[in-house]
Amino acid sequence: MPDLFARLLPLLRRAAMGLACLAAGCAGLPPREPQPPELAIPVSAQTELGRIVAPFNTQPDELSAVRPLPQASFALDARLELIRRAQASLDVQSYQLGKDKTGLLILRELRDAARRGVRVRLLLDDFYTGGLDRLLLALAAEPKAEVRLFNPFVNGREHTATRWLDFFTDFKRLNHRMHNKLFIADGAIAIAGGRNLADEYFLRSEGANFIDFELLMAGPVVPQSARIFDDYWNSDVVYPLQRMVRAADPTEQLVAEFDLATSEAHAPWPDAPPESDILSEPRLAEQLARGELLWMRAEAQALADSPNKALGTRPPGMETLARRWYATMATAKSQVLVISPYFIPGDEGMERIRAARARGLRITIITNSLADSDEPLVNVNYNRFRVALLQTGVELLEVSTQQLKRNTQIRRLLRQARGRLHAKLALIDREWVLLGSMNLDPRSERLNTEFGVRVHSFELTQALLYAYLLDDIEGVYRVVLKPDGQSVQWVGTGDETNEVLDDEPDSSMLTRLQLLLFSWFVPTDQL
After folding, report:
1. How many degrees, rounded to 5, is the angle at CA 74 between CA 70 and CA 75?
2. Is the CB of residue 220 less than 8 Å from the CB of residue 297?
3. DSSP-assigned letters across all residues of 365-427
4. In whole angstroms, what is the distance from residue 98 CA to residue 200 CA?
5. Where does residue 148 rank: exposed (0-12), middle (13-18), buried (19+ CB within 10 A)?
6. Residue 293 banded pLDDT, cuts 50, 70, 90
7. Residue 504 has pLDDT above 70, yes or no
8. Are 106 and 183 in contact (CB under 8 A)?
9. Which of 325, 372, 366 is nearest to 343 (CA)?
10. Cα–Cα distance between 279 and 523 in angstroms, integer?
């Protein structure tokens, strides 16, 4: 882990420079130009995908069709297959698009789709677009493509350091981000879940990779999702790329740079996934080639925060996705299993947990260990609640690279990279599945916007229990109370010895001390 103290000084310098920028008067957001709302193109039997999903859109029971995507290779393959088969529209919404093999490949395929006449709408949160402006301008130069930015940066867009200046000087606004992830092809098939469009979310990174989850969807839940996309696309906090970025160079030069950056040399096509996934289902390409989708039928509902959540005020009647999720969890009769990479229950969450335990509910929480969290400050704040959670009878599990790699298959997939949890799931009474982009932490509840899907399906729940071995999970440490009942220890899984540790696994005392000191300066509601 990098020396956190060494990182503090540059941050302070940036803050000082930001204050100087503020005093000098930095440019603010440009005025919005009135424009008519632009809406999703409805599913149509005139497209191949529309014809294939037609049976799911004409059933009187109004059930949707869903298929889990627990494996990264199948999730990326499904996106690429849908992009190449799209004939009318592609609506893509993401918190992050990497300037890496995966992000560049997605950009190239979207550009190619636009050139064959598909309307492409790409909506990105602006926090991670540093270094992408020229590539995005090249995509937006295509007549059938448009790029918009959520809550954009105004000043110093070209470099990370100068973006930090803008962040500090306009913190109240820029601290609100769009964390949603959504992909819709021809208004027919959608993908929702936790994956961003970058290497580490598809097991293509050499440093660290995420264990994640997404859901393929068809039927009534897709137009629901499309309406949510439209709400964001046309909202007051979203700006067309060209309103924020001006390129001095001619379009021809931008296109040439795009062609080079997204060439096969820099954005290679991934290896084909196996013939069938962990649930013995064939690749999406094979199902589409047959012209039929043998998916699970289920009641499904797409839900999201209002994009106006980013304005920092909550209009009367605006209900957050977090509150809807908590209300659904409160209906549990026997058990709740929560998977969240970043978990901070807070005092209010602890009250909900105590009330649920008093009703006899079994509660299991799976999150990242300190050593394998990409947001260690979140982990430190979660640690404050660990003893209280265990004292109420919650089963607490922490994902660890060291434990994961005791499984031969996972070790082969991760190679030398670390393995981190990024899936956001809740399984309720083995009947309901909540999934999407939302973590169970204050940032998701109060600051970021989130997208999620609520599915009523025993079949889907059972598939997830099988795919992730949740009834007998390995690759984790079980966190338990010590005999004194006031402190914790970690019990390994997946081998004969099941070692017991009294200190945070795979982390040094110095690292823990550094994080503790830093946590004093970062309010919990910012995590």
Report:
1. 70
2. no
3. EEEE-STT-S-HHHHHHHHTTHHHHHHTT-EEEEE-HHHHTTSHHHHHHHTTSEEEE---EEE
4. 9
5. buried
6. very high
7. yes
8. no
9. 366
10. 42
Alpha carbon distance 313, 479 (integer Å): 38
Token pair belonging to 135: 């590539």
Distance in angstroms between the alpha carbons of the first and the last residue of the chain = 19
The mean of the pLDDT values for the chain is 88
Identify the sign of the CA torsion 263, 80, 182, 203.
negative
Residue 11, token pair as written in the block: 């941050």
Half-sphere exposure of 502 (CA within 13 A, CB side): 4
- With CA atoms as reference, report the closest residue to 237 among 181, 303, 315, 311: 311
For residues 408 and 157, give the distance between their C-alpha atoms in angstroms, rounded to a whole number.
Answer: 44
Helices (H) then strands (E): counts for the chain: 20, 20
Place of tokens 């290779």: 73
Pairing of strands 500-501, 488-491: antiparallel
Using N-to-C axis directions, what is the helix angle for 72-85 and 101-115, rounded to 10°?
A: 20
For residue 479, give the nearest of 370, 346, 354 by alpha carbon: 370
What's at 180, amino acid-wise? N
Q: Give CA–CA dist 444/285, Å, rounded.
A: 34
For residues 450 and 304, the answer to whether their CB atoms sit within 8 Å is yes
Burial class (CB in 10 A: 0-12, 13-18, 19+), 470: middle
Task: Look at the block and give the residue holding tokens 């009330």.
Answer: 355
Distance (Å, whole) CA 105 – CA 112: 11
d(CA 43, CA 225): 12
Residue 41 to residue 290: CA distance in whole angstroms: 25
Model confidence pLDDT, tens digit, residues 346-357: 999 999 999 999
The SS3 of residue 290 is: helix
pLDDT digit string (tens) for 64-83? 999 999 999 999 999 999 99
How far is CA 494 from each of CA 271, 340, 395, 397, 478, rounded to the nearest angstrom? 29, 21, 17, 13, 11
